[in-house]
Amino acid sequence: MESGKSHNKGALKVNAGVEKPDVVNPLLKKKTARFKKNRISPEEYFKGIKAGNRTLLSQSITLIESTLPEDREAARKLIQWCLPLSGKALRLGITGVPGVGKSTFIESFGLYLIEKGHKVAVLAIDPSSMRSRGSILGDKTRMEHLGNSNKAFIRPSASAGTLGGVARKTREAMILCEAAGYDTVFVETVGVGQSETAVAQMVDFFLLLMLAGGGDELQGIKRGIMEMADLIVINKADGENKNRANLAKREYENALHLFPPLPNGWQPSVMTASALYSENLTEIGDKIETFLRLTKENGSFEKNRKNQAYQLFEETIHQAIHDHFFNLPEIKKRLVKYKTQILDRQLSPYEASQKLLDFYFGLFSK
Ligand code: GDP
């Protein structure tokens, strides 16, 4: 700072015209060169991940989340190398309305698992952060105790793009975490929209956190989410709330009995817990163990993973075709034209889509 000041003799001289490019340009060049030199190669990321280096794991997740074309090839390589090292972890989905205690639960349950010798990674899909900069899950200082453990890795939600895009990045982040030796991966989301379906499609076990009192409509939980749950946990079953939590447990048990049995042979159940006071965590852990034993023995665990892999394949193709179509300049132009014609009722949506698809397929038949 000091030497720069004396060299340029104040701002006036710097701004005086001729000298400016001479000063600024070499500096810029130097900076770019240094940045390039310091760029971490995919090989180095991979080494770091395998060594369980959390900083490099975090940076490599940033790399796979990057939308820069120059990062894409490195990200692809990295995922490819990590894939064979992944797949052995338990993937646990956690959902529930804001305030139900998801972070508190993941923190206590995560610490409980670490005490039992596990390594825990926490990822999140936060639909609110896709619409705006605001975020329900990501921005709070969350899970401080868990974050302080060197057996835990916590990553806030990827915030760019569509739900499909973010879900794909989360799956990829999961692969990197597993390659880094995390044997339990939590994927957290808010259970109020579509994101819980995306999470259910990437985990082995899906846990729904609920509160006593105030019915499921009040909690904004749709019946569909209850049907996806392998376990419902009524949280905050402590103090004066304990009795109400037990009542709610019975109510939800009755509701669950109305659902058809699951093809994997598992009977979802309801438990109470206190994430804040770490109560009933052992029972929940045992329940998950029982699930794993059953589904691994009857083959449905593996079947579910295979189905998810196939689903991912189809989704990736869908997404690529979608992007290819909508990013073509000729299509973009025609979309505007057809939109006007549809809105003016000059053309039906069927006719318009047929015309546009004919044009699109025509591009390949030449
Ligand atoms: P999230 O929005 O679902 O992640 O919920 P948080 O984990 O941030 O919890 C919301 C509030 O509920 C916080 O003030 C927590 O301290 C509190 N909380 C979470 N779990 C419990 C619990 O088991 N018992 C009680 N009494 N409070 C809890």
What count of helical segments does DSSP give? 18
Q: In percent, how helical is the residue content? A: 55-70%
- The CATH first-level class of the largest domain comes to Alpha Beta
Structural class: alpha/beta
What's the CATH H-level homologous superfamily of the largest domain?
P-loop containing nucleotide triphosphate hydrolases
**Domain unit count:** 3
Radius of gyration: 26 Å
| Global outline | globular
Roughly what is the average pLDDT, rounded to an integer?
Answer: 84
- Major β-sheet, in short? 7 strands, parallel
CATH fold-level name of the largest domain:
Rossmann fold
Please, could you describe this protein's structure?
There is one protein chain. This protein has 18 helices and seven strands. With 366 residues, the chain is an alpha/beta fold. The protein folds into three domains: 44 residues, Single alpha-helices involved in coiled-coils or other helix-helix interfaces (Up-down Bundle), CATH 1.20.5; 213 residues, P-loop containing nucleotide triphosphate hydrolases (Rossmann fold, 3-Layer(aba) Sandwich), CATH 3.40.50; 51 residues, no CATH class. The protein has a seven-stranded parallel sheet with strand order 3-2-4-1-5-6-7, with helices on both faces. β6, α14 and β7 form a beta-alpha-beta unit. α17 runs antiparallel to α18. The termini are far apart. The site of guanosine-5'-diphosphate (GDP) has 14 residues, from α7.
